[in-house]
Amino acid sequence: VGKAASNACNGLGETGKGLVNSLMVLGVGETVALFIMVFSMMLVS
Hints:
The protein is mainly alpha-helical. The chain contains 2 helices and no strands.
């Protein structure tokens, strides 16, 4: 997610476009990370 965020900032700074697409990619990445965290916590406990 960090590389996607840095590429989104770089692209937005250079072109001024693509904010919505970048936010969608980051949102999907964060959602997947949260699901993995919750399921791993359920498996451990």
